Backbone:
């Protein structure tokens, strides 16, 4: 099979490459195509893969190109992981928002709206190219904000597109491991992705806005066993982030990104005081990596050291708010999205069922949201495609936040598709982390000044 990565010069591409090389199934990816508009970054990542390949017996062949039709023609799967305006754009988004006194994070923060406004036109163009050159390819989206971009692509490509995120399965893995270590869940469990296995994850919400509400093992929900043990809740990453008292009060374990909502004032203060907020840190780190890669023979070693630093500092400001704890070693291995992408491709190509938490069209799964709204829920994947499983009902405390967040996402899509400042203002002013319409208006002008193509965000009276 052939897999095309849009954003093939991206830093995390080697994670996908290594995951593909571990696949020994009959229908596995044998050709990996990397497409990027930045030839320098593309060349660096191609070098990393060439240095990793000798140690990976099933490594696919690699084709790197800056020509999109070449990358798409005849491919079986497309993995979309583009970053419009690069890490510099992320750093700008965050700094502009922090200067206005609001959280700027690239998915749940106001920075996510800026990111989407400039990214949606590019994604729409990619959709047209996919329709022309790869009309039958399955599209796996990881371009952020993942829920928004998946919904945009689904409007044109339908169920040909699915969105992925590593956060839900990472959360479930940490909870299950905690219970296993305490002797409260069986130790001999298989993969969390195995649809015929003994574990079923109860999770629902939106991308970066969901809750683990049950964890069924051998027909029994073991999550209540966690809720009875504050000491266990405080022993894994999300439990430490939110604290046992809040987790027990919710009766569910929140996705890590909900920290920005539950502790918004505290996260904002730490971000504003930080010498280098996450966006600025990653921009500097990526610049160093791609520059140093030109002057070293061990590019793969440099990549691995940079990757480890990236994982160690993930959500560092949030952890500072919650007690400055270090990440567990198991969470430093990989972000996990590469394994989710491989699980989808493996299940479809080999008709080996998998159970995953995916971003798909709602179609009644969550009654509070429109049918075409993209939601993050359990799905079964097999050779016939992706099938929604019964989604857990949203907890009462979650419903209003989810409905509001989806309204913000859909107004953002309206703004970008129809070049509407009004829709953009509705999105920003209703964002739960933006507390002033006046600030929303200022941010729209900031976005327009910073990025080409967003001049429609400035009205005649700005």
Residues:
């Amino acid at each position: 099979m052939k897999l095309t990565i849009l954003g093939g010069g991206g830093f995390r591409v080697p994670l996908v490459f290594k995951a593909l090389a571990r696949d020994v199934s009959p229908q596995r990816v044998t050709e990996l195509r990397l497409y990027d508009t930045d030839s320098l970054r593309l060349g660096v990542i191609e070098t990393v893969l060439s240095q990793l390949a000798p140690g990976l017996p099933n490594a696919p062949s690699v084709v790197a190109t800056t020509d999109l039709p070449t990358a798409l023609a005849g491919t079986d799967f497309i993995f979309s992981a583009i970053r419009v305006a690069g890490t510099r754009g992320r750093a700008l988004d965050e700094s502009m928002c922090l200067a206005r006194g609001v959280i700027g994070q690239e998915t749940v923060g106001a920075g996510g709206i800026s990111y989407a406004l400039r990214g949606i036109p590019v994604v729409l163009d990619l959709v047209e190219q996919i329709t022309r050159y790869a009309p039958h390819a399955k599209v796996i989206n990881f371009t952020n904000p993942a829920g928004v971009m998946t919904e945009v692509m689904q409007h044109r490509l339908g169920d040909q597109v699915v969105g992925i995120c590593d956060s839900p399965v990472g959360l479930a893995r940490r909870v299950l491991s905690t219970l296993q270590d305490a002797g409260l869940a069986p130790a001999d469990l298989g993969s969390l992705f195995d649809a015929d296995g003994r574990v079923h994850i109860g999770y629902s919400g939106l991308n970066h806005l969901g809750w683990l509400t049950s964890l069924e093992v051998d027909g029994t929900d073991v999550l209540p066993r966690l809720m009875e043990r504050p000491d266990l809740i405080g022993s894994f990453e999300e439990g430490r982030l939110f604290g046992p008292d809040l987790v027990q009060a919710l009766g569910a374990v929140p996705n890590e990104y909900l920290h920005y909502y539950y502790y918004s004032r505290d996260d904002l203060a730490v971000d504003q005081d930080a010498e280098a907020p996450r966006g600025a840190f990653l921009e500097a780190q990526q610049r160093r990596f791609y520059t140093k890669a030109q002057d070293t023979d061990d590019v793969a070693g440099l990549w691995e050291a940079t990757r480890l630093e990236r994982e160690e500092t993930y959500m560092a400001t949030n952890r500072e708010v919650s007690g400055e704890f270090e990440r567990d070693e198991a969470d430093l291995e990989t972000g996990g999205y590469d394994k989710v992408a491989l699980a989808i491709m493996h299940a479809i190509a080999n008709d080996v069922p998998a159970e995953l938490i995916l971003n798909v069209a709602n179609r009644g799964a969550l009654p509070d949201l429109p049918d075409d709204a993209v939601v993050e829920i359990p799905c079964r994947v097999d050779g016939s495609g992706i099938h929604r499983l019964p989604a857990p009902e949203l907890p009462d405390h979650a419903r209003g936040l989810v409905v509001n967040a989806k309204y913000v996402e859909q107004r953002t899509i309206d703004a970008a598709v129809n070049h509407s400042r009004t829709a953009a203002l509705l999105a920003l002013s209703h964002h739960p982390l933006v507390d002033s319409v006046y600030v929303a208006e200022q941010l729209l002008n900031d976005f327009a000044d910073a990025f080409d193509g967003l001049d429609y965000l400035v009205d005649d009276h700005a």
